[in-house]
Design goal:
alpha/beta; 15 helices; Rossmann fold
Length: about 425
């Protein structure tokens, strides 16, 4: 037992000091002196309460967060999750779980602890994910993709007690159901599992309203958090040249080569515009299962000399210096990061109404043209209107992009997690 200089044990010493603080060494004295001593007791208790609150706050700051993503490389959804993990690590002990097997290609800051589960498929990671959660015992698990969300919510009952699960919805539910080959099964999974999430993070008010309506989820569980964009990094990106063959206009589209991205609509729209803009070219950055079909379509439409398939570009922001405008040709979206990054770079924007969030964001904004419907004809009309108005190389401020600045978005996410942690500790 530790002893103090006066020969008392540490416990007795603390009691003695507390007694002296409160009573001045005794309980006798005038009524006035006793009132002063009682005030001192009250002040001391207040001091202790304040100290306890501070300690609780420090404990909350140290609470562990496990952020889960299928892959560290890939599209905008993966980049959003990685950005959130990086920024959350400034406030919390943050662990990043990468579910699928991949060659490490992304460097993470030292403050983010990376765990690779190396599964072949998301559903095959159930056991290793459970082991990771029990080993780390995080206060919060944040899952960043819909199919991974299902697995995490299925496993939730086997997590340590009081583990809070947050899921980030990366697409509009109604559109996802309409495009799914088994919509009734997916709807059943959504309705069975999503109500058990502590919070559901949506990318726009339109997405939150759609989710609440389709899944009958309590609106109080939904939070709208804007996608984080590293605006300054986008603007400072070192340009990557595109081997344009003609004088232009030059169009840029970015996304996974999949049916929902609508690149077939873009190619069909180019045919309509070819007579008016004979030197038009488009560069498409991305990879996916539709590449062979899209290349064949370009040849069929006699556009093979006007379309550049760039493949995967690790830093898409490097492409923004030379195009005349950015095209969003998607049939449905959540809130596309490629569009937001193009806006940060000042590019003019032409978009199909891929979701309510995109329509609300771009409607009436200078330098933005929204097609009337999701079709190749409507896209051609919007492109024609934009190109007739624009000068070569023209750029726009797009001041509305500031709400997506990564520091603002991450702060909102951190505050939402703090709200969840208060519930976990209460």
């Amino acid at each position: 037992m530790r002893h103090n200089a006066g020969g008392e044990n540490s416990s007795t010493g603390r009691e003695s000091n507390f007694s002296k603080l409160c009573f001045g060494g005794g309980v006798k004295g005038s009524a006035c002196a006793n009132r002063k001593k009682l005030r001192t007791i009250s002040e001391t208790r207040s001091l202790f309460r304040c100290k306890l609150t501070t300690m609780r706050g420090a404990a909350m700051k140290r609470s562990g967060i496990l952020v889960l993503t299928p892959q560290s490389c890939g599209g905008g959804a993966q980049r959003v999750v990685l950005l959130l993990a990086t920024h959350l690590a400034m406030d919390y002990e943050t662990h990043l779980g990468i579910v699928l097997s991949e060659a490490p290609s992304v460097e993470f800051p030292d403050r983010v602890f990376v765990h690779r589960l190396s599964a072949r498929r998301v559903r095959g990671a159930a056991w290793s994910l459970l082991l990771l959660v029990w080993r780390l015992r995080p206060t919060v698990v944040l899952s960043g993709m819909a199919h991974l969300n299902f697995l995490v919510l299925l496993l939730r009952v086997f997590f340590p007690p009081r583990t809070r699960v947050l899921v980030r919805q990366n697409g509009t539910v109604s559109a996802a159901l309409a495009a799914d080959s088994h919509p009734h099964l997916r709807r059943a999974l959504y309705r069975l599992l999503y109500p058990h999430a502590s919070r559901i993070l949506c990318q726009s008010e339109a997405m939150a309203e759609d989710l609440a309506r389709e899944l009958r989820v309590d609106r109080s569980r939904l939070r709208v958090l804007p996608n984080p964009i590293e605006i300054d990094a986008v603007r400072a990106a070192e340009p990557l040249s595109i081997a344009w063959r003609e004088a232009g206009p030059h169009l840029l589209a970015i996304g996974r080569l999949a049916p929902e991205k609508g690149f077939d609509l873009l190619l069909t729209a180019l045919v309509t515009l070819r007579g008016r803009f004979p030197h038009m070219e488009v560069a498409i950055a991305g990879m996916g299962g539709e590449e062979t079909r899209l290349r064949a379509l370009a040849e069929e439409l006699n556009l093979q000399d006007r379309v550049h398939f760039l493949g995967a570009v690790p830093e898409p922001a490097r492409l923004f210096s030379s195009p005349d405008l950015f095209v969003l040709s998607s049939r449905h979206e959540g809130m596309p990061n490629a569009l937001l990054e193009a806006a940060a770079a000042g590019l003019p924007l032409v978009a199909l109404p891929a979701c309510g969030g995109v329509v609300d964001l771009l409607r009436g904004q200078e330098g933005c043209w929204m097609a009337k419907e999701i079709s190749a004809v409507a896209l051609a009309d919007a492109l024609s209107a934009a190109l007739s108005r624009l000068s070569s190389g023209e750029r726009f401020a797009h001041a509305w992009i500031e709400r997506f600045r990564a520091s603002h978005s991450a702060r909102a996410c951190s505050e939402m997690i703090a709200e969840v942690l208060v519930g976990a500790h209460s």
